[in-house]
Design brief:
Layout: E1 15-18, H1 22-32, E2 34-40, E3 47-52, E4 55-60, H2 66-80, E5 84-93, E6 103-111, H3 114-120, H4 131-143, E7 148-155, H5 165-172, E8 175-179, H6 182-191, E9 195-205, H7 214-240
Parallel strand pairs: 1-4, 1-5, 5-9, 6-7, 7-8
Antiparallel strand pairs: 2-3, 3-4, 5-8, 6-9
Helix pairs in contact: 2-6, 4-7
Bound molecules: hypoxanthine (HPA).
The site of hypoxanthine has 10 residues, from strand 5, strand 8 and strand 9.
Length: 241
């Protein structure tokens, strides 16, 4: 029995979408799933299972920040045998290569967190997305003419950082967006030999100050969920064929 997810084995699908906000998990389930069933409300971190395109899928809130993400991802992989997790979130753009409403496909996730320093000692581990899932998501987005940009994410520990200069350096090294969870997700997926991908819509631009309206955020978020779900359906087809 898992401590923070009040479900029994089998109630969670092998494929899970993880928004940070638990209400987004509910919205994903109610909007996209057939026959959604809520399996968790421990700490209000809602989780649902249903079907999409004939494939069982779940949507589980991760909370904000790597410690919270790591608790839920670990329990999903270890206690519920989840095979693939797609984080569906937002990021702030660091680079002129991305615009608000673009979706960043997180190829890698640099981090200032002490979590991987505790895990790897003096080695600076490079958390990375699952290539097959990343490729499937890129294919789906291209077919649907949705603007996606593959590149690096920066998983920061502090949203309100007292020293914003590091983001300029990271942008020079090809990092496109800042968010707060992908590095922990990618690291745990590697630990358990599972697949993970982070898709982040750009909600605000750190260089231009531009922000999306609530309406725009909703529309882009919807497009991103379709990309994530269709990529998972294709992954399932490829591995059950
Ligand atoms: N920083 C961290 N996380 C975020 C941001 C940001 O600027 N925007 C959206 N998620």
């Amino acid at each position: 029995m898992s401590t923070h997810i009040g479900a029994s084995p089998g109630q969670i699908a092998p494929y899970v979408l993880m928004p940070g906000d638990p209400y987004r998990a509910r919205w994903i389930a109610e909007t996209f799933f057939e026959d959604p069933v809520q399996y968790n409300d421990v700490r209000g971190m809602l989780g649902y299972t249903g079907t999409y395109g004939g494939v069982r899928v779940s949507a589980q809130g991760s909370g904000m920040g790597q410690p919270s993400m790591a608790i839920y991802a670990q329990e999903l992989f270890d206690d519920f045998d989840v095979q693939a997790i797609v984080r569906v979130g937002t990021c702030g753009a660091l680079s002129e290569k991305v615009a608000v409403r673009d979706v960043v496909l997180g190829v890698s996730a640099s981090t200032d967190s002490a979590m991987n320093a505790a895990r790897f000692g003096r080695v600076s581990y490079a958390p990375a997305a699952d290539f097959e899932l990343l490729r499937l998501a890129a294919d789906v987005a291209e077919e649907k003419l949705l603007p996606v940009v593959p590149g690096g994410l920066y998983s920061a520990d502090q949203l309100y950082s007292p020293d914003p200069t590091i983001t300029a350096t990271l942008a020079r090294y090809g990092v496109l967006g800042v968010e707060m969870e992908a590095a922990a997700l990618y690291t745990l997926a590697a630990q358990f030999s599972r697949r993970a991908l982070a898709l982040c819509t750009v909600s605000d631009h750190l260089l231009t100050g531009e922000e999306t309206s609530a309406q725009e955020r909703q529309e882009t978020f919807e497009d991103m969920i379709v990309v994530a779900l269709d990529a998972l359906v294709r992954l399932d087809q490829q591995h059950s064929a």
